[in-house]
Amino acid sequence: xxxxxxxxxxxxxxxxxxxxxxxxxxxxxxxxxxxxxxxxxxxxxxxxxxxxxxxxxxxxxxxxxxxxxxxxxxxxxxxxxxxxxxxxxxxxxxxxxxxxxxxxxxxxxxxxxxxxxxxxxxxxxxxxxxxxxxxxxxxxxxxxxxxxxxxxxxxxxxxxxxxxxxxxxxxxxxxxxxxxxxxxxxxxxxxxxxxxxxxxxxxxxxxxxxxxxxxxxxxxxxxxxxxxxxxxxxxxxxxxxxxxxxxxxxxxxxxxxxxxxxxxxxxxxxxxxxxxxxxxxxxxxxxxxxxxxxxxxxxxxxxxxxxxxxxxxxxxxxxxxxxxxxxxxxxxxxxxxxxxxxxxxxxxxxxxxxxxxxxxxxxxxxxxxxxxxxxxxxxxxxxxxxxxxxxxxxxxxxxxxxxxxxxxxxxxxxxxxxxxxxxxxxxxxxxxxxxxxxxxxxxxxxxxxxxxxxxxxxxxxxxxxxxxxxxxxxxxxxxxxxxxxxxxxxxxxxxxxxxxxxxxxxxxxxxxxxxxxxxxxxxxxxxxxxxxxxxxxxxxxxxxxxxxxxxxxxxxxxxxxxxxxxxxxxxxxxxxxxxxxxxxxxxxxxxxxxxxxxxxxxxxxxxxxxxxxxxxxxxxxxxxxxxxxxxxxxxxxxxxxxxxxxxxxxxxxxxxxxxxxxxxxxxxxxxxxxxxxxxxxxxxxxxxxxxxxxxxxxxxxxxxxxxxxxxxxxxxxxxxxxxxxxxxxxxxxxxxxxxxxxxxxxxxxxxxxxxxxxxxxxxxxxxxxxxxxxxxxxxxxxxxxxxxxxxxxxxxxxxxxxxxxxxxxxxxxxxxxxxxxxxxxxxxxxxxxxxxxxxxxxxxxxxxxxxxxxxxxxxxxxxx
Length: 864
Description:
Helix content: 55-70%
Shape: globular
Number of strands: 19
Largest sheet: 8 strands, antiparallel
Strand order of the largest sheet: 3-4-2-14-17-18-16-19
Strand content: 5-15%
Number of helices: 27
C-alpha cells in the first residue's frame, strides 16, 4: 500500500493554487467609487457618501477629471482626513488613501502596448540655463563663437538626449514597467509610450517623467529668522539680499502637524546630487517620512567638506527648485549619507527616490502632447493570437491524453494549473504581459511538457523492467528529478542574468520566463506526483498503459557526425553571408528608426486592412486619440527610411504623399486630413543594445560555469557551441525567407524568439548530457563514444515527443495566429527544429571529440 503522506502536500498545493487564483482576480478594472466604499471602516458612512456626491459634481463640471482627482479635491476642500474613513496601514495623507484605492480598483494583470495599447507622451527637452552657460563657456574663445556654439549645442544635446532616454527607461523600470517604448522623435523631442490605460496611472507617470531630479544643497542665510520677520512685516516691499532667494516648505514640527516655513537660501548651491548611488524612503521615530541618500566615494568626500566648513549653519535641500527641508548642520557628516525630510506621501517618496537613483537631467522636460494609443497588434490580431493559443493548448492536451492515457490526463491538468499559476504570478509581481512575455510562457509550457515526458518515459523504463506501478513511479520521479532540476536551473540562471542586466523587452521576457520555470517545476515534480498518489489510493491501478513511439532504438548518431558537421558549417557560413550581404537591411524599424507619418481621420478602418494596403512599406500602424479632446483622433504610420512604392521613379513624392494617395484611394471613408512627417529614432539605442549584449554574454558565461560544476568543462563548451549554432542558423534562414516574402526584418519580437530558442535548445541539450553522465556510471563495458550513442538513443523518444508537441503548438500559431505574430512564431519554429538537431548532432559529438583528444594526450604521456 502507498504510505506516502498526502494531507500536508494537498494542503500546500491548495494554498498555492488559491493564492495565485486570488491574485488573478479581477481581470477588469473596478469602479473607483465602489472600491472606495468597500474600503470604508463603517459601511454607508455619511461623510464618505457626501464626499462621493461632491466628487461626482466636480466631474460633471469638468469631464476631464478622473474620480480619484475629484475625490481628492473634495476631501481637501472639506478638510476631511480620508485615513480616518478607510481601512489600511501606513496611511498618513490623503494621497496615500487615493493611491490605495487606485491600486485596489485596477485590473490584476497589466497588458503591454502590443496587446492592450497604452499612452504616449510627446516630450520636449528644454536645456536649462546652466547647460547653456556651460556650452557658451566651452566655445567663447573660438574664432567663430556663434557657429561653434550652435554645433556644440547640437552635439551635446544629442548626447544628453540619449542619456535622457536611458534615465527615463530606468525610471519606468523602477515602476516595474519594463516594456516602455522610448525613442527620439526628431529635434529635441522624445516619444515615450507606456502600457498604462487608467487616467490615474497616467497622471502618476506624468509627474515622474517631468521630474528632472536635480538635487541641490544650498546654505541658508545666517540671519534667516530676522529676514523672515522683515518679510512678514512688509511682504509687498521686501527685497531679499543679493545672492539669496526666498523659498517655502511645509515642515512637521510635531507628529502629524505640518506648518508653512520660510527660508532665505543662497542662489549658488554648494553641492549637487550627481554622486548619489542609492536613495530609499524611510521614517523617523515620529512616523514622518524621509528619503535616505547614499553617496559614492567622491560624493561622500565632498559632502563631508561642505558640512565640516558650515557647522552650525542650516543646509537647505532643494529638489527640482522645490525646498523640502533645511536642517542645522550639528557636526561634520563624513559617512557618505544624507536625508531629505518633508511632507511626502508614500508614493511621492518612492518616486523621488527612484528618480534620484536613475539620475538627474540637465534640462527641463515639457510634456507637449498626451495620446491614448490602440494596441499595436490590432484587435483582430490579438483575437487571432488568443484563439490560436487556446487551440494549440488543446492540441497538446489531446496529444498527451492520447499518447500517455491516464498519465496524459494528469499532465494536462498540471498544465492547466501551471497557466493559472503563471498568470497569478504575473499579477502578484505587477509584471506586464507582452508578446515577448508570451514567448516566455510558451517556452515554459514546452518545458513543463518536457518535464512530464521525461518522468513518464522513466516510468515506462521501470515498468519494462517488470517493476510494480508505484515502485516504477517512485523510481521514475527520482531519476528524472536531477535532469529536470539541471535543465530548469540552467535556464533559470540565464533568465536571472537577463533580468538583472537586460532592459526593456529583454527584461520583460526574463521576468515571465523565470516565473514560468518555477511554476513548471512545482506542477511537474510536486503536483503530478500528488495526483498519482491519489490515483493509487482511490483506484488501485496496477498498470499504466502508454503508446510507444520507438522500441529500443540503436542508431549510430556519432557515426554521422562528420556529415552533420559539414551540413552545419555550410548552413552557418550561408547564414552569416546572407546577413552580411543584407547589412542593416535585416534590421526592422525598432532598431533603425524611420519616418513617422500622422493623419487626422474620421472613420476607423481595421488595422489589418491598412497593413495589407501598405504592405510594400512594411508599416507599423497605430490609432491614437488625444486625452484632452475627444475629436482629436490620429492615425500614426511608422515606416523605415528610404522605402518607396515599387515602380516609383526617382522623382517620387515624399512617403507621406505616397501613403496618403494609397489610403485615400482605398479607404475614402477615412477622410484623411492634415499630415505630419517626422524622423524618428530607433527604440533600441546604443545604451540599450550594450545592456542587452552584456546580459546575453554574461548568461553564456554563467551557463558554462554551471555546466562545468555540474558536469565537466567540455559539456559547457559544447552547450555554448550548440546555442551559437542554433541562433546563427535560425537567424540566417529567417533572413533568407525574407527574399521569398515569408518573413520581414529583425524586430524586438524576433529577438524575444531568439532568446526563447536559447532556452529551449539549452533544455534539450542538458537532458542528453544528464543521461550521458548517468550511463557513464552504469555502463562499464563500452567506450566513451558508445556510451554517448546509447544515451542519445535512450532520450530519443523524449526528444522527439517534446519537439513534436512544441512544433504542434507553433504550427497552429503560425497558421491561425495572424500576420502580427508570424515572424515571432516562424523564428521559434526554426529554432525548435535546429535546436533538436544540435542536441543530437552537435553538442554530444563535441563532447565525444573533446574526450577523445584528452584520451590521446593521456595515452601519449603513458607511452613516453
